[in-house]
Design a protein that fits this description.
- This protein has 315 residues and is of the alpha+beta class.
- It folds into three domains: 120 residues, Beta Polymerase, domain 2 (2-Layer Sandwich), CATH 3.30.460; 104 residues, no CATH class; 63 residues, no CATH class.
- Helices cover 55% and strands 9% of the residues.
- It has a five-stranded mixed beta sheet.
- Strand 3 and strand 4 form a beta hairpin.
- Helix 10 packs antiparallel against helix 11.
- The radius of gyration is 25 Å and the shape is globular.
- 29% of the residues are buried.
- The model has no long low-confidence stretch (mean pLDDT 91).
- InterPro entries: RlaP.
- It comes from Nannocystis exedens.
- It holds the Pfam family RlaP.
- This is Nucleotidyltransferase.
Length: 315
């Protein structure tokens, strides 16, 4: 877009971590200031531009919001090695110089949260590999008639009132509670069956081979350990290191060097390490959002001034 300004763009993902293989994609992510109308008009503009599946540019305000919340994928962009930077304007350099303002103890939960998502996938897929569901669940298996005894609306209303305290289980008959429990278990079984069927249809053949050989997705395992280690490092030191010194060990995990049990033990130890490091961490509980807001406003103002100073097209 001729009337916008790309402040900064970098290679991200496996290439930045130093964990790339010959078949790895090249992921590009950037930060831009859009046209003046995005900031002065009432229609606004998009929060990000997806130029391709592997090429995304964030509008600067969205970037600041996500980075201040310690979103790992977004936060890392400002700490990629210089050899990954494909665009870095003077305003981009200013942003890099101020990057420590984004770091806070929010990383404890954000990095752990992303890691736990990896862990949940590993555990679920391992269960499906080792003990796959062998049939579609039926209502009869849960002692339920084909016609629901409790409508979906009734069930939703009762569960909502139980959750917020407007109703207690003591207010319901034993028969109703029994039916409610069986409906819940049937719903959970259906949900897992449908997720399993979707996984079978969409699973990556290479990932399937890893799961069949090692009992778990070793690529997920590698990223689980990377995320947990990075989170622990940031909490302990107040710095973020994207290019991994432990590259060889991480690639060995991807290659199947660690058993599932070892992976689980290491993940638990890293989680405990992060929790223990909080008390002595140099990081604040949260970033100074007023300072970040002022920085964002200044960068937007300077970028818009640069764009407006450009010669008009055709002159």
């Amino acid at each position: 877009m001729a009337d916008s300004l790309l402040l900064y763009e970098t290679v991200h993902g496996s290439q930045a971590y130093g964990l790339q293989t010959p078949t790895s994609d090249v992921d590009l992510k950037g930060i831009l200031v859009g046209p003046a109308a995005w900031y002065h008009g009432f229609l606004g503009g998009p929060e990000q531009l997806e130029l391709s599946a592997d090429h995304v540019r964030y509008e600067i305000r969205k970037y600041f919001r996500l980075a201040a919340a310690a979103n790992p994928t977004v936060l890392e962009l400002l700490w990629t090695p210089p050899d990954c930077h494909t665009v870095c304007t003077p305003l981009g350099e200013r942003l890099l110089a101020e990057r420590d303002k984004f770091l806070s103890l929010r990383v404890k939960d954000s990095f752990s949260g992303y890691a736990m998502s990896q862990l949940a996938r590993i555990k679920t897929h391992r269960k499906w590999v080792m003990h796959p569901p062998d049939h579609e669940p039926t209502r009869a298996e849960f002692d339920l008639p084909e016609t629901r005894l409790i409508s979906r609306d009734q069930m939703g209303a009762v569960e909502a009132m139980l959750a917020d305290g407007r109703m207690a289980e003591a207010d319901l008959t034993t028969n109703f509670l029994g039916v409610l429990d069986r409906e819940r278990r049937y719903k959970a079984a259906r949900k897992e069956w449908e997720a399993y069927q979707s996984w079978l249809k969409t699973r990556n053949p290479k990932r399937s081979a890893l799961e069949a050989e090692f009992g778990y997705d070793t690529k997920h395992g590698m990223h689980l350990i990377r995320l947990l280690r990075m989170g622990a490092e940031i909490v302990e030191t107040g710095t973020l290191k994207v290019r991994r010194d432990d590259r060889d060990e991480l690639l060995a995990i991807r290659g199947g060097a660690w058993s599932y049990d070892r992976l689980m033990e290491a993940a638990d130890a890293l989680h405990q390490r992060t929790q223990a490091a909080v008390a002595a961490s140099p990081l604040p509980l949260a970033p100074d959002e007023a300072a970040l807001d002022a920085l964002c406003a200044d960068l937007v103002g300077r970028a818009l001034a640069q764009v407006s100073a450009r010669p008009a097209r055709g002159t």
